[in-house]
Amino acid sequence: MSTPPKIIAIDGPAAAGKGTLAKRLADHFQLELLDTGLLYRAVAGKVIDIGVEIADDPKTYSASAGQAARGLIPADLEVDGLRSDQVAQAASKVSALPEVRAALLSFQRSFAEHPPYGGQGAILDGRDIGTVVCPEADVKLFISASTEIRAKRRFKELQERGVEAIYARVLDDMRERDARDTGRDASPLVAADDAFLLDTSDLDADQAFAAALDFIETRST
Ligand code: DC
C-alpha cells in the first residue's frame, strides 16, 4: 500500500456521486472535507438575498457577485435553501465570472494546505480542483455518469425530500448546467490529464467507494 494521500481532488458534473464518495474517503483517510460547490451556492444565495436577479446578462449581477464572493464568511455557508436547484443554476452562472473564482481560490487553497480542524489532510470536491485549485493533489478523481442517470438520481432525491419535481425539467436543468460548467472560459469542468476517471452510471455508492479506494491504494507515488 502507498502512503495515505494528504490532498485528494474530486471533480465531475452534478449528481455524479462526488459528494457521497468524498465523505466516505474523508472518513476513511481522516481528511477534512470541503464541498466547494457550496461556496458558489453561498455567493449566489447572497446575491439573491439582496434582491439582485441572476438572469441571462452577467452585467446585471457580476459586481454584486464579486462583492459577495470577496466578503464570504463561514456563516454564509449555513444558510437554508442553498441545496435547491434554483440556487444551483444561479451558482453555475456566478461561477463563470473570473472575479468570483479568483475571490474563492485562496480560501480553497488554504483549506487544502492547512486543513482547519487538525485533519491529516484535505479532500475538496468541485469542478476545477484537480486542474486549478490543487494541481499538485496526491490523488485526482474525475467522477462522471450519464446525464440521464444523474437526472434520475437528482429527481429521486427531490422526491425523497418531498420537493415537487418533473423529471423532464430536472433533465433539462442538468443539461443546461453541464453545458455552462463545461463551456465557460474560466476554469471549465474538465478532467485533469492525470485524473482517475470513474464512471458511476452502473455503480452504487459502495462500488464507487471500492473502486476509488482500490485506485488510491495501488497508485504509485
Ligand atoms: O457541486 P454543486 O452542484 O454544488 O455546484 C454548484 C455550481 O457551482 C456548479 O454548477 C458549478 C459551480 N462550481 C464551480 O464552478 N467550481 C467548483 N469547484 C464547484 C462548483
Overview of the structural elements:
- The chain has 221 residues and is α/β, with parallel strands linked by helices.
- It has a single domain, classed as Rossmann fold (3-Layer(aba) Sandwich).
- It is 50% helix and 11% strand.
- The protein has a 5-stranded parallel sheet, with helices on both faces.
- The radius of gyration is 17 Å and the shape is globular.
- The site of 2'-deoxycytidine-5'-monophosphate has 15 residues, from helix 2, helix 4 and helix 8.
Task: Give the structure's gist in a few sentences.
Helix content is 50%, strand content 11%. The chain has 221 residues and is an alpha/beta fold.
Largest sheet: 5 strands, parallel
> Helix/strand/pairing class, anyone?
alpha/beta
Strand content: 5-15%
Q: Helix and strand string, N-terminal first?
A: EHEHHHHEHEHHEH
Total beta strand runs = 5
As an assembly, this protein is single chain
Instruction: Give the CATH topology.
Output: Rossmann fold
Distance between the termini: 10 Å
Which blocks of ≥5 consecutive residues have pLDDT under 50? none
What CATH architecture would you give? 3-Layer(aba) Sandwich
Rounded to an integer in angstroms, the radius of gyration calculated over CA atoms is 17 Å
What is this structure's SSE topology?
Elements: E1 7-11, H1 18-29, E2 32-35, H2 36-49, H3 62-70, H4 85-94, H5 98-113, E3 122-126, H6 129-133, E4 139-144, H7 147-160, H8 167-183, E5 196-199, H9 205-218
Parallel strand pairs: 1-3, 1-4, 2-3, 4-5
Helix pairs in contact: 1-9, 2-3, 2-4, 3-5, 4-8, 7-8
Bound molecules: 2'-deoxycytidine-5'-monophosphate (DC).
2'-deoxycytidine-5'-monophosphate (DC) binds at residues 14, 36-37, 40-41, 88, 91-92, 95, 126-129, 177, 181.
